[in-house]
Specification:
By secondary structure, the chain is mostly helical. It has 14 helices and two strands, in the order αααββααααααααααα. It has a two-stranded antiparallel sheet. α3 runs antiparallel to α14, α6 crosses α7 and α8 runs parallel beside α10.
Length: 356
């Protein structure tokens, strides 16, 4: 039965890949007010060519300029998910080999305790959450040679996230995560990646207690600002569009569809949309688009048209994007390009986490 299910998944993925090459605009569903569908599709194709050309011989991608950067598990995982978001699958098509090599590199850089190796300046739990999410998203698409190893690595990664959540914290921080697995405080940014990873892992059958999801949702709701309507980095620390997108997506994928805090955040983003130059703009591009896509309706229509217009106007001739301010400058164009593809491709719905 497992082999039959695996074969069906591979067949479906390959069909989706053929659809993308046969006519990518047919899969797009951008509204009348958005840039032309084909313009978005071409933008994604150019971005993927940029990413593919910058993979290292080891299979990894780097943060910052390739000549000066470091091989990064988070950058590698984001690049793999960008290819997946556009309909590409490991082992098939023009990028299949590159994706497989990237997945193997990420698994090669997992520690015995389950933590993915971290060499960047941000906290290791950022890297860990992103890598765990990638493995959960790609789990049904790899062949039998890689499947068992991936599943083992994913289960170890999930267990570490659960252990980190269980570290004793004060009431204001309970249920969330921060920079280190041993942290006794929390923030919405790190929590977002861990919650996405747990939700994706649970969706494919990993042992993720419902109580852990509920506990995390409690923390996310604690970051909601009842007066302004958005979400803050930590409870009562001031709202921003980027954090609001994070809060919306966390609640939506955990079943809090159109909950009061979700809709208050969505209305906040209509009043104060994410702008190029905002702190952590490309981080916000991902969370605001995927979150508002889950909300749907007018909230998604307005966000889609706005974000796609901004991104298309800022893409470089080589297909890349560059961080817009100092908050993301150290992450470089590979990070910004991957996040942009993940945002522009949301309506393709190839990534499981995008499913409504």
């Amino acid at each position: 039965m497992e082999r039959i299910s695996f074969a069906m998944n591979r067949c479906l993925s390959y069909m989706l890949l053929l659809m993308l090459f046969a006519g990518p605009a047919a899969k797009s569903s951008f509204g009348q007010g958005a840039p032309a569908n084909r313009q978005v599709d071409r933008s994604i194709v150019r971005a993927l060519k940029y990413l593919a050309a910058r993979q290292q011989p080891s299979g990894a991608w780097q943060l910052k300029n390739p000549s000066r950067g470091r091989e990064s598990a988070s950058a590698t995982s984001l690049a793999i998910m960008a290819f997946m978001a556009a309909g590409h699958v490991p082992g098939e098509g023009p990028y299949g080999d590159q994706m497989e090599r990237g997945i193997r590199w990420v698994l090669d850089n997992q520690r015995p305790d389950g933590l993915f190796m971290h060499k960047a300046g941000n906290g290791p739990m950022y890297t860990h959450g992103i890598c765990t999410l990638m493995l959960a998203e790609v789990a049904g698409m790899v062949d039998a040679r890689l499947s068992d190893r991936l599943r083992t690595g994913l289960e170890k990664a999930v267990l570490l996230i659960l252990k980190a959540q269980a570290v004793p914290k004060g009431q204001a921080h309970a249920g969330g995560w921060r920079y280190h697995a041993s942290s006794n405080d929390s923030d919405l940014s790190v929590t977002g990646w861990q919650l996405l990873a747990l939700r994706a892992a649970k969706n494919i059958g990993c042992d993720v207690p419902a109580e852990a999801i509920e506990y995390a949702v409690t923390y996310v709701n604690r970051c909601a600002d009842n007066n302004k309507g958005g979400f803050s980095y930590q409870p009562n620390h001031g709202v921003s569009p980027t954090r609001t997108g994070t809060g919306i997506l966390c609640l939506e994928i955990c079943g809090e569809h159109h909950a009061p805090a979700t809709m208050a955040g969505a209305n906040y983003l209509l009043r104060r949309p994410l702008q190029y130059g905002d702190g952590f703009f490309f981080y916000g591009v991902y969370y605001c688009t995927v979150g508002m896509f889950q909300v749907g309706g007018r909230h998604w229509d307005v966000t889609r048209d706005h974000v796609s217009s901004v991104l298309l106007s800022r893409q470089h001739p080589d297909g890349s994007w560059s961080p817009s301010d100092g908050s993301e400058a150290s992450f470089g164009p590979m990070y910004a390009t991957s996040m942009s593809v993940l945002a522009l491709a949301v309506e393709y719905q190839y990534l499981p986490i995008y499913q409504r």
